[in-house]
Amino acid sequence: ILIYPNNDDPNMPLVRVVPASKGKEIVESMKSEARKREQQQSQMMATILALIVGGALIGAIMMGDLTIALFGIIAAAMIYLIGMRGGMIQKREEKDIPKLLVSHDKDDSPPFVDATAAHSGALLGDVRHDPFQAGGLETPAHLRVEAGAIHKAHKGVLYIDEINTLSLPSQQHLLTAIQEKEFQITGQSERSSGAMVKTENVPCDFILVCAGNLDAVEGMHPALRSRIRGYGYEIYMNNNMDDNEENRKKLIRFVAQEVSKDKKIPHFDKGAIEEIVREAQRRAGQKGKLSLRLRELGGLVRVAGDLAVSEGKDLVTSEYVIRAKDIARSLEQQVADRYLKMRKAYQSFKTEGVEIGTINGLAVMSADPSMSEFSGLILPIVAEVTPAGSKSEGKIIATGRLGEIAKEAVQNVSAILKKYMGKDISKRDIHIQFVGTYEGVEGDSASIAVATAVISAMENVPILQEVAMTGSLSVHGAVLPIGGVTAKIEAAAKAGLRKVLIPKANMQDVLIEDKYKSKIEIIPVETLKDVLENALAGKGKARLVKRLETLQPSVISKVDLESEKAVAKMPVRKGKSKKSPAGETKSK
């Protein structure tokens, strides 16, 4: 792509596109011709000056008058100054040489341009400021034009990471370039002398590849996203991949690449590789999957390697990988462990004995989908039933900075109490306290814990404190699956609890470490009846469980589309009838 001066409008340089490698030839040819003309003029000027000065000196000697020599020298000086002026004109002629804006050779591959964090000038092109704008020293506008990333990516790929960091005006210009496949270059700063310069349309036919997190969509210009969806694809990348032989080999190759890139840590033996693969399974959070959060796994690889280097080992074994897991814990995990120790020291929850209306729930800290793993926490829940404070109705009062989903989950528990407990709760207030939840509670994974605590308080039946539980609960009493089950089980084991109740559907997602398997018993549950059978103690347990035998999870059967027709053909059941005003008989 060449930029030529425009004699009719200097502030609108001309744009010409020529085949690959031809641009360099054109520019070099014109520069060569300009140098030849300059050399010829210099030689002619030197010859004229030599003749004038030589003639003056000869005349002065022959005439014996030095004045002639003086006048000859003055004349030569005047001619030299005039020649300098001509040289400036000649330099102006050199400025008429076009500027090679974008250059390619015939054998070049299509360009790949990374425009991440580029400002508007670097992305869209710019015109440099000219500090010398008068007196014959100014630089022509076409020589101050600079190509942007969109022009350098012509017939190639333009890559922008964190697309939402681009300003909205830049995104608007970018979508214009995508649609029109050409974009003018102008000065990006209104205080620059290049602000008045605007070229003809410069080609910019490229493939745009953007990347970003989910929050990037919120910062994108709606029109730009519309162009992307209209002319391309939106792809949500997978966080996990299938756990098969091929993908395990890829994961092993990744470990070897991390070792080679680091250049300081030793390679991993078979046992260490197996531990890395197992950690990828754990962080996937699903059975039969491997995590694709390779950045965090790479950190684990480097920490394990550093441990081996610090002890002078030539090979990383599984021992170093296991030790690295404790060192390379996330910030949330470190906070959760410290929080757990503090609660245990102050006896915020118990791990043995029985209590009425008190239960150990389970939660995760910072359940952010961008996190590679969760950090488990013990969530003590206390329930108490009191006479209603209002004569009109009873209330369910939940405290602990609950979020919207958590509040709705508590309301769903009240439906089970009304239907299956046979208790009139309209004359009672039910108080539910989430102990020590200063950061707030969100989600419905504590539903079975809340229901168990409330039933215990209403029926005066104690709860085993060595049991922890997690699971969502439907209004029909079915225990529904939740997230972060592995982290929750490990948190219960760390806290010294002996049993944990989890939804049966989550059993396939349990991938706890070997050191916790002997410390805790995992009990899958399907209904609230199963929960109470394993969590309650005392004499009232059998009576209460028997009352809940009718509580079974509902199953949605296949809908028969022909059933409506069959019902319509059924004969009307005889019964009392009465005549309508029109004389027709209506069945009751």
Task: Give a brief outline of the structure.
With 588 residues, the chain is an alpha/beta fold.
Features:
588 residues; alpha/beta; Rossmann fold; Helicase, Ruva Protein, domain 3; 4 domains; 3-stranded antiparallel β-sheet; 25 strands; 16% strand; disordered C terminus
What's the average pLDDT? Answer: 82
Distance between the termini: 87 Å
Instruction: Assign the structural class, choosing from mainly alpha, mainly beta, alpha/beta, alpha+beta, or little secondary structure.
Output: alpha/beta
Instruction: Give the domain tally.
Output: 4
CATH topology of the largest domain: Ribosomal Protein S5, domain 2
Low-confidence residue ranges: 554-568, 572-588
- From the spread of the alpha carbons, the general shape counts as elongated
Q: What is the rounded Rg?
A: 41 Å
Number of helices: 19
Largest pleated sheet: 7 strands, mixed
Number of strands: 25
The CATH architecture term of the largest domain is 2-Layer Sandwich
**Going across the major beta sheet, what is the strand order?**
16-17-15-14-19-22-23
CATH hierarchy class name of the largest domain:
Alpha Beta
- Helical percent range? 40-55%
User: Which strand-content bin applies to the residues?
Assistant: 15-25%
Task: Explain what you see.
- The chain is α/β, with parallel strands linked by helices.
- It has 4 domains: 22-100; 112-231, 3-Layer(aba) Sandwich (Rossmann fold), CATH 3.40.50.300; 240-328, Helicase, Ruva Protein, domain 3 (Orthogonal Bundle); 348-550, Ribosomal Protein S5, domain 2, CATH 3.30.230.10.
- The strands form 9 sheets. A 7-stranded mixed sheet has the order 16-17-15-14-19-22-23. Strands 2-1-3 form a 3-stranded antiparallel sheet, covered by helices on one side.
- Helix 8 crosses helix 10 (294-310), helix 9 (270-284) packs parallel to helix 11 (318-327) and helix 10 packs across helix 11 (318-327).
